[in-house]
Sequence to fold (1094 residues):
Amino acid sequence: MSDTDSFAQILRRGLWHENPGLVQLLGLCPLLAVSNTLVNGLGLGLATILVICATNVLVSACRRWLHDDFRLPVFVLIIATFVTSVELLCRAFWFDLHLALGIFLPLIVTNCVILGRAEAFASRQRVSAALADGLAHGLGFAAVLIALGGLRELVGQGSLLAGAELLFGPVGRGWSLELVPQSGGLLLAALPPGAFIGLAVLIAARNALTRRRANAGRVTAAAADS
Amino acid sequence: MPLTTGSAPFWRTPDTVPVIMRHVLYALVPAIIASVWFFGIGIVYNLIVAVVTALVTEAIALRLRGRPAGPGLADYSAIVTAVLLAMCLPPLTAWWVTATGACFAVAVAKHLYGGLGFNLFNPAMAGYVAVLVSFPDALSGWPAPNIGDLDAPIPGSGATLWFTLTGQLPGDLSLDAITRATPLDTVKTELGMMRTMDEIGTNPLFGDFGGRGWEWIANFVALGGGWLLIRRIIRWQTPVAMLVTLAGMAAVGYLFDPARLPGPGFHLFSSGTMLCAFFIATDPVTGAATNRGKLIVGAAIGALTYVIRTWGSYADGIAFAVLLVNMAVPLIDRYTRPRVYGRPPRSQQ
Amino acid sequence: MNASSGFNARPPRPAWGIRPPPNKDLSLAQPIRTMPPPMRVVIPVDQCLGLAAAPLVTVGQSVAVSQPIAAAGSTSGTAGPCVHASISGIVTGLERRPVAGRDTTDRLCVLVDGDGRDETLAADDNPVEPLPVSPDDICAQIAAAGIVGLGGALFSTAAKLGSGRPIDTLIINGAECEPYITCDEILMRTRAMHVLRGVRIMQHALGATQTVIAVESNMPEARAAIFDAIEAAGHDDMHVCVVTAKYPAGGERQLTELIMGREVPEYGLPADIGIVCHNVGTAAAVADLFDRGRPLISRIVTVTGHGVADPGNFEVRIGTPIRDLLAFAGRHDEPAGRIIMGGPMMGWALPGDSLPVTKATNCLIVMQPGDIVPDAPEMPCIRCGECVIACPARLLPQELLIAARRHDMDGLQALGIDACIECGCCDYVCPSQIRLTDRLIAAKAAHAQHVAGLRHAMQAQQRSDARTARLAAQRHAEAADLDRQLDNTDDADAIDAIMARVRDKETHATESKDEQVDD
Fold:
């Protein structure tokens, strides 16, 4: 991890190679608990992106003055400040979503992805790079939340984007799709075990994809050799 | 012509995995016939849906895992899983419910763990639980048993087929008119309404021990299980330990509070107790390997079943009990290792 | 029964083991028949477990029946068992020929062409008189007569009798538990008195206070014959004990546990708990020696299976080509599908019928092609635990298999791989048709190699530690010496000189140490 990392490299790392949800398996508690519908996942994902970007920028900006002995409390203080701001914003403008996300919005404070990026990246890098890293990891985490939320909503309730109005206002009411009309859906997916099974399926899919790509690379290399 | 070589032993038991699985299927035939007699043709449709789904899923899973499908399908294990699952489902079950359970059982509970021999959880029970938590309403209503003096009619084969295919009954039949809660559900609900066991027992659903019809199916399941014991396909430790523990706990509870706790007869002959004891808890893959381990597994399933039935939120706890004990099996196997011949006892090592 | 004898008059029914179809009636229909000496014999030189032997004859030399042709190396002073010519004639070759075993390989054999006269040495064929009294003399004669364990193990009988350990019980193993084999049973049925004479001598050599003759519950005639013989001879310190007919009840360790209620230690011998176990056939061979002056030149072989017209038990000269024996037993013309030496559970499938009968050949099963069940493809282990229940050593074969696949040597050790007696029970009962015996034998060998490596490393470490300690002690002594010298010296110059000398020496020592390290 050097200063010369390009923006694209940072982005690729956060979204794929070091994806917090699928590779580092960080922040599993909110990931599993809030991913029961796509909209919930999207809401928590956006909030997390906001917090992680702001935290990274501020931590990076103050890194000169942060002494090793007290850096962790300061990180937590910064994170808590932004989380509180986001929560208050949410309460002001998206109250129904706030109710749906419940305790997991304030609990973003304890999401170790954020603390991890602050510690491992932002406290050592330029502000621009820290912003890019925050964005990349936030997006990576949000992507997993959205994918898992969508998967569980689809299987568990047979719908997609149900309750979009919570996030997007009355416009979103028309967006929700009833893909399998009036079926109960496979309730298992919406229940906590479904979160574990769904996440496992996503991790497995990612691993399979990575392995296939590596194999393809090896085959190409072998072909080039011969 | 050269002589055939090879290495000892030159003999092997004829009871191979496919033979064992086939015997298990034969042993279930009397219970299936009894079920058709008491609850109508529905179970046959369930069996067909479950078996077809399980075989298709097995073939796809084997293909995805890069294994030849032939031997995997020929070992009958997927069929046994499907049949056990179908026997747990109500005779009136929509096909997608059965198919979901069978697919989950084979794909998730069996092949995601590595296929035959590597699954931690009993596939049939895992599939049943997946369906139970996913479609709680679909699994609560059974037809009233065909005893004669109960007012509810058994739906005919056509109506049952229609229900299996569409999830709805044709014409003027209503689901509420022909289904009843299971005896265990009834006991749980009525006890919740502060009735005593004596009052509940006057319900025409109840027979000598458990539910009417149910107790007879249990007898036929036990008959098949007894045959498996005699054929030495299963060992006695697990079923005996399970039934004795369940009956013992029920007897203690009954002596303590006969008004609110059903007696051992009811526990033994209700729902799937017998099916579990002889066909599910004895699953070799997810059971204990040692004799002492088999005793512990059986006793643990019996105890957990009683606990969940009595104090849990689900009326029947067998599936959950089996899955919970499945998790403990590796540990049980580890602590019941026999002392190797010629080694001093562990205390002296 | 003697109260202090401490054996189970009614041995417990074992929970382990299997009950394969016994198929013993096939070869029990007729009494023992003696096969005439063959025209040619091929006698392996090595016929004693763990003792290499050297030939005593040269090509072209003429030999008589019972003439020693090879002698095994000696252990602890007593000579190892000899090998004798089983027919009279001329040595035509000392060649490497295939000899049956787990891995049938070429071994040095003495080839003798018979002269048809069957002449014996003049001194032989008479009872040994007077009977030797001292156990050492008995053992020496037994070794010279080439008597080894005829149950198939080929362990030196003399070494077992003369171990010098205190022995209280002699077990005579007539529990012939493998299917098909009846050579011990027919011996007990028809020559019980003869067997007892051998047993008597062995008991005397051991100084054992009692003898227990074990038979299986499915051989009542043999039990009755032995019982009557004991009554007739009036041996009140000999007992007959009936064990459940279950394979492998006749395994040495299993039999000891069943009869004595005591277990042989994992890495020990029955002698460690005061017990010695001998085969019925071995006892008969001892009787042959002392009654008739005959060394071990023949043995009883069960020839059975659907591939021979006239199955039964035959007294056969050692070294007889199997082809000749099968012809004598009326082998069917059609090609045999498989010939097994030993039983179907632990025997060896022979690559051809030209191999010789050895002292280990207790049985030949000739199977027709239709009798052979081809190996089914292995399926995954379903963890049913049948192998655990069947294992007579109380092992967990399914877990041993996992440890073996992982090359987990510590796991194999913890699970007790060395207690495996390779009986094949786990293999037999496995519904997934996993070739457990082969795998476990391979794992056992790999584990033994691993342990030998460890022992080697440990010895090297010990030597190195000892050297370090020795050097340290030496330095310590020198320092003490120096102190004494310093104490006794007042002269400052002298002290400086000594110190300089010491520094010199230390530098030198360091240098030489460095060199050593470099080496």
Q: What stands out?
A: The beta strands of chain A are 159-160, 177-178. Residues 7-225 of chain A form one domain.
